[in-house]
Amino acid sequence: MRVSVTTSVFLGLMASVALGPSATAAEKTKFEFWYGLSGDLGERVQDACKKFNDSQSEFEIVCTSQNGYDTTLQNTIAAYRAKKQPAITQIYDAGTLDMMLSGAFVPAKKLMADNGYTIDWNNYFGGIANYYATAKGELNSFPFNSSTAMFYYNIDAFQKAGIDFKPDTWEQVEEAARKLKTAGYECPLAFNFDTWPLMEQFSAIHNQPIATAANGYNGLDAELVVNKTKFVDHVKFFKKMADEKLFVVKTKQLGMDTVPAFTSQTCQMIQTSIADHGTIGKTLPEGVKWEVAMLPVWKGTERQNSLVGGASLWVLAGRPEAEYKGAAAFLNYLATPEMAEWWSTVTGYIPVTETGFDAMKANGFYDKAPYQGRELAIESLSFTPTSENTRGIRLGGFTQIRKEFATALEAIFMQNADVQAELDKTVERGNAVLRRFEKTYAGQTLN
Amino acid sequence: MDKRAAFRSWWLPSLFALPQIILILLFFYWPAVAVLRWAFTLEPPFGGAAEFVGLANFQEVFADPLYWNSVGVSLAFALCGTLATIFIGLVLALAVDRQLPGSAPFRFLYILPYAIAGPAAGMAFRFILSPERGLMASVNAAFPDFWNPAKYGSHALILVIVVFAWKWAGYTFIFLLAGLQSVPRSLIEAAAMDGCGPIRRAVDIQIPLLAPTLFFLLVIMMTEGFVGADTYGIVARTTDGGPNHGTDVMVYRIVEEAFRGLNYSGASAQSLVLIGLIMIFTFIQFRFIERQVHYK
Questions:
Q1: Cis omega (within 30 of 0) on the bond before A385?
Q2: Where are the transmembrane segments (chain B) (predicted)?
Q3: How high is the pLDDT of residue B290?
């Protein structure tokens, strides 16, 4: 009896080993794609993968969500070290420098050229491509889901408070906040401690540096300088407004973050990503009038382009040649105008190429609700050609630096810490992160 | 002693022990050695030349005032969390052990929170105890800032300790109830006949006899509070280490440093310090507290 069991198991194993290759030989080349988006946006990525698989018969892409940008980067690192990396991975803006210095990728340009695709690299919006490109302007990864920060306000509330202007400048925002308060609105403007709109976008559109060496593009020896720019005055302004209860802190720790605060009409103005445009439109009750605008600037400021947020797609080194053919085909497929339009429509992310944007404009995509207003994100991103201060932020350990600043804002707004002293301290801590990063990559230079 | 089983050869016992040895090597010593190597080198996350830097990673850790802040926060958290869980577990166990009519379902109910993952509990409590929208919102409306874990570090620390105690009290409860059930009934009955009330009996008979269990729980819960996965999960889901480092416990700091900051070297150095601290605490517990414990 025992013999027959072992024999049959053995035979079964033999059979599966023998049949395995012959059964898969005719199958398509499979390759993996890891991404960080989750929930609704994650499902849209799955749709894109399915569309690609249905569109051709040569390759099969297997898409797996890693549930979050930071976990995708961590898992990619772990997989790469174990030599089990996916062919394509989605890395967020703050992880760009880590990827660039890793030597673990196939440059976008090389991949497409090797596999016989001609891509017009100038077709990418400068404000988007330059964030991910080297200082010389060469793209190493493919811009994928892109957004920028915008200003949202509730028109119904504005009308009730008798405000007849658009909040284009921070002076106007203050005036609007006062009028809203007088009209009985408890929370005219909501903000949280996310540094992305408050520090990064603010600095870019006001042409203020965040760090030396062109925000880190020119070398790993960059040092933070935000404690000496207009950003300090901006935080002081926010602090004054918060003390007068015109600007109100809304965080998840307090019970409600800024976007729900806006969609529940608790608060009347917020700064958040254009990617929330869809959610806000869907969540606000029918009939409530609201609008999206470019982030306000201080009066007399020459507005510059805002920074792109989101993530790009990296093709990792060390995979079999056949997979690169598939990866190139997939990336080429994503870049087609039809896919660009589909992706923007279903997600709210902005198209990354000019032809994609033009095609959508020509189709009348932006002419009516619920998509009206999203074109302002493109306008904001390409308001001026990118300069040293507006190209992007190329700093090592930037996730940690962001967290340091978020903590500083917490200390300033929740515990009344002195603005200048707190920012000085944070810059010092941030610089320590940068120095350690520089030491970790000793001998490497940014190309 | 004379009944001791003895193996005649050396290879058979080795063979039996092998799976266990492999597991320990694979899941304990290997990572420990990797951490050790990392702590003394600087290596880019994707791999590459790992440069030996001696004690630089440790110097950096010790020079950081926020690191010492996190040691203090961790101590407060582990100590208060441990005492709270053991106290709550003890009270519940004593109550259930009286076997009053209808107490049976509670035996089951009190264990339930233990089955809930720490991060999930943290998420739930973040909503329940949120200062503007939760249970305390009405109190805050009358007395502004009476409860505001987003503003005061002490409130935030209380919040994470509450979540920790809520979850782990079920665990101490199981052990303490089992311990109570091995206390001879005759002792309790005798005391009752002499006119001792339930509290007197608990203080004079049951708790002293529970000493070995209480000591065991003290060691286990202190370790859990310091390095438990739940401690990280709870802090990450409720306060994110804030406000202004108010709940920045050591494990949270390590995970943040390693996986958000991609600073594996600094995180490894912190891990080694944490391991050392736990060894010291456990030593103190065995050296000074266990002396008071009588097993027989």
A1: no
A2: 12-32, 75-96, 108-129, 156-178, 209-229, 269-289
A3: 79
The predicted structure's pLDDT at residue A2: 44
Give every residue of chain B whose pLDDT is below 70, as ranges.
Answer: 1-5, 295-296
User: Is residue A98 within 8 angstroms of chain B, CB to CB?
Assistant: yes
Interface with chain A: mutation pick from B37, B41, B46, B52, highest number of A CBs within 10 Å: B46
The reply to whether B38 and B159 lie within a common domain is no
Smallest CA–CA distance, residue B136 to chain A, in Å, is 11
State the pLDDT at residue A229.
Answer: 96
The partner residue sitting opposite A397, judged by closest CB among B126, B239, B262, is B262
The answer to whether A101 contacts chain B (CB < 8 Å) is: yes
The domain tally of chain B equals: 2
Element (H, E) at A441: none
Residue B148 lies in a domain: yes
Domain limits at B231?
Answer: 64-292
What DSSP state is assigned to residue A211?
B
Measured distance CA(A222)–CA(A74) in Å, rounded: 25
Which residue type sits at B43? Answer: E
Q: What are phi and psi of A314, to 5 degrees?
A: -110, 135
- Residue A370, preceding peptide bond in cis (omega within 30° of 0): yes
The token duo for A183 is: 């009209």
Which residue in A254, A400, A429 has the most chain B C-beta atoms within 10 A of its own C-beta, making it the best mutation to test that interface?
A254
CB B85 within 8 A of CB B165: yes
Quote the pTM value: 0.88
Which of the two residues, A94 and A226, has the higher pLDDT score?
A226
Q: Which residue of A has its CA nearest to B247?
A: A407
For residues B21 and B140, state if they share a domain.
Answer: no
What's the rounded Cα separation, in Å, for the pair A278 and A348? 6
**B39 lies in the same domain as B70:** no
